[in-house]
Inverse folding.
């Protein structure tokens, strides 16, 4: 299947970042949203993000305009879906909104168009519960910001057609993404399961008075995260023992099993949330937009080193 035109339904933080990614790959993109104000943010985002890419020598000024021109916006769903071979849904994370939207899209979209949800949490089988033929739908969950972070997890449901998965995996690779396939509709898919496990320990460490928010953040960004940006946890530990991963498990099996016993899974009560927020806010930081720009610039530098941009 040749993908020629893309529709993005939902033009918020994730939708607009997908739009930039796809337009940079040369695709005409039509964006739809129920809130027209989202379109003002789309234009501002494109200007800011293209400026950042251009300041990092990733595009020339003449491409700047042609990329922006590939992104058009409309408040008419039928117009957005017209002629689209691939539809990316990135609306608010609300199951009622998603289910009624999918039922509507089924009536309007071309019969061969694939529909990929950006959802961070809902299985596609739930999102498509009101559709008659859900086989063309699946989850393609990006990591924020999608125009920079390479990984996208692809999560089919039991009703998703195999060729829809194959086309999506190939399509994502063709636009420079690194798709990972989540074979089962597990809660949190792959990425959020991993992220949530670490976050649980971060919160436990603060709750138990073992460490401060600042030290937990530093432990991740100046320690674990630096290695993880280069290789996954299994490869990290393969390098951590002369006898490789096998030696690692032989040595650390008791330590790992003991540490998994020691922490209970807590409820997130207001006391711990307040403690974390107070500690986080006690540190002076530049304003948020500046921090986002800074994050994106550092991500680009890192991706350049990794030859992933
Ligand atoms: N924010 C993240 O870090 C992140 C990361 C990965 C995936 N996601 C997922 O991406 C999706 C979008 O999240 P976001 O952070 O961009 O949210 P957002 O609030 O920034 O944007 C959502 C947009 O959807 C629009 N919308 C709501 N109902 C609509 C409808 N019926 N039709 C068309 N547009 C509608 C809203 O007006 C808004 O502009 C969610 O499913 C979320 O789980 C978010």
């Amino acid at each position: 299947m040749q993908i020629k035109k893309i529709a993005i339904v939902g033009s918020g933080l994730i939708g607009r970042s997908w739009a930039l990614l796809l337009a940079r790959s040369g695709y005409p993109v039509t964006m739809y949203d129920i809130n027209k104000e989202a379109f003002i943010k789309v234009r501002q985002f494109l200007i800011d993000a293209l400026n950042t890419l251009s300041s990092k020598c990733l595009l020339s000024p003449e491409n700047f305009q042609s990329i922006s021109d590939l992104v058009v916006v409309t408040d008419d769903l039928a117009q957005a879906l017209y002629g689209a071979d691939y539809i990316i849904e990135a609306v608010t994370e609300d199951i009622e909104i998603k289910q009624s939207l999918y039922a509507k899209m089924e009536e309007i979209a071309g019969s061969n168009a694939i529909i990929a949800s950006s959802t961070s949490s809902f299985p596609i089988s739930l999102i498509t519960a009101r559709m008659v033929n859900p086989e063309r739908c699946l989850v393609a969950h990006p990591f924020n910001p999608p125009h920079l972070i390479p990984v996208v997890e692809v999560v089919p449901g039991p009703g998703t057609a195999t060729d829809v998965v194959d086309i999506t995996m190939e399509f994502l690779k063709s636009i420079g993404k690194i798709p990972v396939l989540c074979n089962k509709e597990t809660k949190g898919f792959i990425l959020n399961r991993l992220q949530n496990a670490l976050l649980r320990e971060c919160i436990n460490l603060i709750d138990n008075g073992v460490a401060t928010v600042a030290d937990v953040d530093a432990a991740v960004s100046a320690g674990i995260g630096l290695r993880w940006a280069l290789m996954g946890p299994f490869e990290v530990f393969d390098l951590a023992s002369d006898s490789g991963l096998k030696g690692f498990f032989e040595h650390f099996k008791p330590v790992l099993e003991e540490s998994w016993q020691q922490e209970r899974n807590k409820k997130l009560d207001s006391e711990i949330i307040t403690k974390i927020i107070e500690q986080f806010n006690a540190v002076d930081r530049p304003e948020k937009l500046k921090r986002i720009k800074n994050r994106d610039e550092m991500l680009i530098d890192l991706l350049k080193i990794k030859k992933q941009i």
Notes: The chain has two domains: 6-181, 191-305. The beta strands are 6-9, 29-32, 71-74, 86-89, 114-117, 137-142, 151-155, 178-181. DSSP finds 13 helices and eight strands in the chain.
